[in-house]
Amino acid sequence: MSLDPSTYLLLLFGFFLVATLYSSAGFGGGSSYLALLGLLLLHENPAANSDQIASIKGLALICNLVVVGGSSVVFYRQGLLKSKLFLPFVVFSVPLAFWGATLRLDYEVFFILLGTLLIIAAIPLLVSFRSDEKSAKTLSYLQRGGLGGGIGFLSGLVGIGGGIFLAPILHLMRWESAQKIAALASFFIGINSLAALIGLWGSAQWNSPQPQDWGLVLAVLLGGQLGVRWTTRKIRPLIIRRTTAILVLLVGIRILYQSLN
C-alpha cells in the first residue's frame, strides 16, 4: 500500500502503541497489526487481491518477530525456556504454520476469518487468570503437540504468531506458572512467525518489505522495548490486558461487519 504522510504517521503511532501494550503482556501484537492494516486495506482498496493480503501478513509477522525476539532472550536468561516442556508445541506447530502460510485465501474469506479470530482472541484477555506451580496440570506429548499444531496452522493461515490463543488456553488449564506460560507464548510466537514468513516467501506470495514498512518495523522495535522496560512498572498488567482486549474486540467486530456487508 502507498500511504499519504498523515495516514502513515497515524499508522506509525498505532504500531508503536500496539507493540508497547502487547510486549508488556508478553505478546507480539500480530493480531492488532493485522487489524490496523486490514482496516486500512478495506478502506483504501475494497477489492484487494491475494498479493496485497500476503503483503500485510508478511509485515505483521516481521513485526511479531521484532517484538518477541527481545522477550525470548530475557526469558532464556531467566531459565524459563524449558525445552522438554516446550518442544512438543513447537515440533508440531512449525510445519503447520509453514503449511498454513502457503495457502492462498480469497479476499472475503481472509477478512471474515481475521475478524472472527480477533473477536475470539479478545474474550480470554478480558478474563483474570490465576496460575501457579501448585495447581499445574500435566499435558501429554500428543496433547501439547495437538494444541500447538492447531494454533500453528491458524497462525500461518492468517498471519499471526498464535501466542494470543495459546497463552489463555494454558492459563485456563492451569498448565504451568504464569512466567513459564509467558515464556512459551513469546517463543511460540517467534518460531511460528518465522515459519509462516518462510512459507509466504517460498510460495511466491510475498517477496520483501516495502520502504514504508521499515518505518513500521522501527516503530514496533521502539514500542516493544518501552513495553518491556517501562510500562509494566507504571501500569497494572490487568489494565493493559483489558484495554488491549477491548481494542481488539472493537476492531474485530468492525472488520467482520465490513466483510459481511
UniProtKB/TrEMBL annotation:
Topology of this chain in the membrane: Multi-pass membrane protein
Domain of life: Bacteria
One cellular component (GO) term of this entry: plasma membrane
Transmembrane segments: 12-42, 54-73, 85-102, 109-127, 147-169, 181-202, 214-232, 239-257
Primary localisation category: membrane
Keywords: Cell membrane, Membrane, Transmembrane, Transmembrane helix
Record's keyword annotation contains Transmembrane helix: yes
UniProt-annotated location(s): Cell membrane; Membrane
Family statement drawn from the similarity comment of this UniProt entry: Belongs to the 4-toluene sulfonate uptake permease (TSUP) (TC 2.A.102) family.
Listed name of the protein: Probable membrane transporter protein
